[in-house]
Amino acid sequence: MSMPEFKEVQHFPSPSDDLKKLTLFKWERLLFTLLKDDLDASVFLNDMLERLHWLPLEEFIFRPELSKDYYVKAHWALYCENYLEGFHIPFVHAGLNTVIDYSEYKTELFGYSSLQLGIAKGEEDCFDLPPSSKDHGNKKAAYYFWVFPNMMFNFYPWGLSVNLVQPIAIDKTKVSFFTYIWKKEKHNRGAGSDLDKVEMEDEEIVQSVQKGIRSRFYQHGRYLLPVSKAHIIFTGLFQNLCNNMSAPQLQRKLGLWACVSMVIGSVIGSSIFMKPATMAAQLGSPLLLLVVWVVAGIISIFGGMINAEIGAMIPETGGQYTYFRYMYGNSLLIFLAGLHSLLSIAAIASIAFIFAQYTSFFINLPSFSESIERSFILTIPFIGKLFFLQNFGIKVVAILLIVVITFINYISLKAGSAIQVFFTALKIAALAFLIFSIFFSGKGSFNNFSIVSSDIDFSSISVLLVLLRLHLVP
């Protein structure tokens, strides 16, 4: 390489002057690349490749005369959203609806892609699936793969139609259809017949939606599960894409053990070592106490499973705040997010206070005399009297703990995660020690479960209060 007049320039050429190297991913005749190197192309395509591993893509022949560009007067994301739901098929695509069984239409979700499965109504125009295929024995008429953000791979018994969605303007999109023929004798039959007509029907509905969302009365649509599962994935990934274009991306610095420790730490709170005594005093029965723990455990499992599913469907930062925004819109967002924040703050304060109480068992913390403790009283209706100077040393330790932990997490996320792992390990070790000590002490007896206090209160309010105490204080 040479550059006239640049002979005297120091450090030229340097690596920064080289052409950008792009990674290349090859799937038989198809080549893919990424402009950013933070993710590998296999992350986007592997689910499709594994599902169709039996398909001889090397036999697919590109047919430029059957390929075509379409120009849609709508935002590109609207075009993708229309593709991602099959709900409109019986209403928009009358011809397609005659060859596929919409009642058997299925959608499967992956990390950066989704699959819609079209099942044929008859025995003809289906894939001849080998035994190694996951779908062997089913009448598959079409595989509709969407790959984030703007690629569709439509596999039919006759071959493949690749759709590339390219934004031109905020209300104009170019959609390129690339046709690859595999079995010429099956072309234009079944679910893959008359694709031009299907495209015209899609364009009409998408352009109508584009017109509707420009109305001053439009706010947002509603999701309909399970029809909108792929919509939610697309919306979350699209929102992340927009955020990455306009703001620095959050760095993923928490490892597996730190994340696991955070979950375990939130489930096994420090107060688990102190709540059983208070709960037993309120309920007065060991059996009823066990029932409360079992019921609370079932509720916790349901809550955890719901959050896990929502987290997978909405892969965005923001936690509960983001979930509330998608579920309830802006009308209830402030109230629900505020309530969640209030409960989280109360949980943090209670954990710190219990830690400080344990500390007072080993260290003699300073305190005021009883007369001074009761000299400053705040009475709150429906709650009672608060003595701010009571347990002064314990409260100071709790406040300092919150300040120190907050400062550590602010300075270094890795240091904060290391502390989380350490304290979670301590809690697990303490629980294991208690469990094994009690089981192998030789002093256990089933008679302990039959002791019932005469003060037992079986009213629903009492049990409800204990359940609330169990859930609101980790």
What do these coordinates show?
The chain is α+β, with helices and mostly antiparallel strands. The protein folds into two domains: 24-246, Alpha-Beta Complex (Naphthalene 1,2-dioxygenase Alpha Subunit, Chain A, domain 1), CATH 3.90.380; 256-472, no CATH class. The protein has helices at residues 41-51, 76-83, 89-92, 94-97, 195-213, 229-246, 256-267, 275-283, 286-313, 320-362, 370-373, 392-411, 413-439, 460-472, and strands at 24-27, 30-33, 61-62, 68-72, 106-109, 113-119, 140-147, 151-156, 159-169, 172-181, 377-380, 384-387. The strands form three sheets. Strands 3, 4, 5, 6, 7, 8, 9 and 10 form an eight-stranded antiparallel β-sheet that branches. Strands 1-2 form a two-stranded antiparallel sheet. Strands 11-12 form a two-stranded antiparallel ribbon. A hairpin with a 2-residue loop joins β8 (151-156) and β9. It starts with 23 loop residues before the first strand and ends with a helix. Mean pLDDT is 80; it is low at 468-474.
Descriptors:
474 residues; alpha+beta; Naphthalene 1,2-dioxygenase Alpha Subunit, Chain A, domain 1; two-stranded antiparallel ribbon; 15% strand; elongated
Assign an overall shape.
Answer: elongated
The count of helical stretches stands at 14
User: Per CATH, what is the topology of the largest domain?
Assistant: Naphthalene 1,2-dioxygenase Alpha Subunit, Chain A, domain 1
Question: Which structural class matches the secondary elements?
Answer: alpha+beta
Head-to-tail CA distance between termini: 66 Å
- Proportion of residues in helical segments: 40-55%
Q: Taking all residues together, what is the mean pLDDT?
A: 80
| CATH architecture annotation name of the largest domain | Alpha-Beta Complex
| CATH class value of the largest domain | Alpha Beta
